[in-house]
Amino acid sequence: MKETSVLCLLFLISLLSCTTNQARLTVSPSSSQFFKDDFVSLSCEEDDSSAGWTLRRNTSKETKTQCGAEWGKSTGNSCSISYILTEDSGVYWCESREGPISNMVNLTVTGGSVILQSPVLPVMEGDDVTLLCKTKTTPSNLPAAFYKDGSLIRKQPTGHMTIQHVSRSDEGLYKCDISGHGESPSSWITVTGDTLTCLCFCRFQHSQCDDKLMTVFALF
């Protein structure tokens, strides 16, 4: 409950400072899901280098911990995790000394054998979005089934699916399944008609993100 309250407070702060944010959190590789032991780099892309941006996170076990102090390796405005673990699943953001915070990014790390590579940041209406269903040990062109909000969208023979000219109706929870290998975790895709989209975050009360606790906020 305490962690949930802190996350709600962070959301309100972000909402109030959304129009003046000077940093954007980016993730490389650009994905919201990762296999255990993958390498992940996070960067605070900023307009004002004097703001002193720090990368922080909330997980199921910790709140507002700073990169370099308790997890990851900090280099300037970037933070790297050499061997990401399932307990690294959580909400990540950049925070300045003055108080404003960047967009929040929800990362999911799985010990399973299938992930869904989907956009980390909100996508603009009218853009094309490609989803990739991949396994850890085999080629990433295996046939895969894609689901939105629990319902089958389609089956693709090569493991990737493109949604052309996305609209608000395409917003939702996506996952994929590769026969004989398993199912990926679910990830939320946010579609916005405005470049001023604040954030999408998940309230962590368990070690895994509960779909029912996913809340999406957009400012227009």
Automatic annotation (TrEMBL):
Signal peptide: 1-23
Gene3D superfamilies: Immunoglobulins
One GO term describing the cellular component: external side of plasma membrane
InterPro entries: Ig-like_dom, Ig-like_dom_sf, Ig-like_fold, Ig_Fc_receptor, Ig_sub
GO molecular-function terms, A-Z: transmembrane signaling receptor activity
Record-level GO BP terms: cell surface receptor signaling pathway; immune response
Domain of life: Eukaryota
Keywords associated with the record: Disulfide bond, Signal
Span of domain Ig-like: 100-192
Listed SUPFAM superfamilies: Immunoglobulin
Protein's name in the database: Ig-like domain-containing protein
